[in-house]
Description:
Layout: E1 3-9, E2 24-26, H1 31-36, E3 42-47, E4 57-62, E5 65-67, H2 69-74, H3 89-92, E6 98-99, E7 108-109, H4 123-130, E8 135-138, E9 141-143, H5 153-159, E10 167-171, H6 172-185, E11 206-208, E12 213-215
Parallel strand pairs: 1-3
Antiparallel strand pairs: 1-10, 2-8, 3-4, 4-9, 5-8, 6-7, 11-12
Amino acid sequence: MPNVYMYVVARDFGFAPNPFHGVCTLATCKPMIRRTAQVGDWVVGMGGAQLKAVGRCIYAMQVTDALTFDAYWDDPEYRCKRPVRNGSRKMIMGDNIYHRPAGTTAWAQEDSHHSQIDGSPEPSNIKNDTQTNRVLLSRNFYYFGDAAPVAPEGILGQLGYHNGIGHRKFTLAQGQPLLDWIQDQYKGQTNTIIGTPYQFMKSSSRYSKRMDKIVE
């Protein structure tokens, strides 16, 4: 039976998740969810205190496919997800950043939101991201960004969800009321970017896992 994974989205740049180009992808961060979520499962990101969005739903995606980093990198369909740091904000936020060059076992990290300020690899992010060699993809998603709706307290209360460290895993039966509410409220708006990422205007910044902070 499918499951529903819920967690707090601490940062929302349009990088993790990356909702652009018609496919919502989770290619970095959240290694435990990327390791265990299966096709058919749902991943729901709730707003955190740093975004001043507690109780709001940032996005919901049903996993429709999963790829290794190398498969994601090599697939021509997802070249549009590779970062271009001198491109548009959407291009800057590309999450297709890891691959292993032929004949090597070490991960190459493209100049991206997870690199150091000078564009060089950020070891702490590489270690955290690549502990799970798996990218989740969705062609059935709702991305709200800064238009994130407030989830009904009754539904969250019945679910027993509250913001915390890590993620929570629920059965589909437990999570269905929340999914039904989203689908009822946003009929005909699947696979669209309903709101801009909260921190999209700071797309040139970087994130360091080692320092756990945004570097600009």
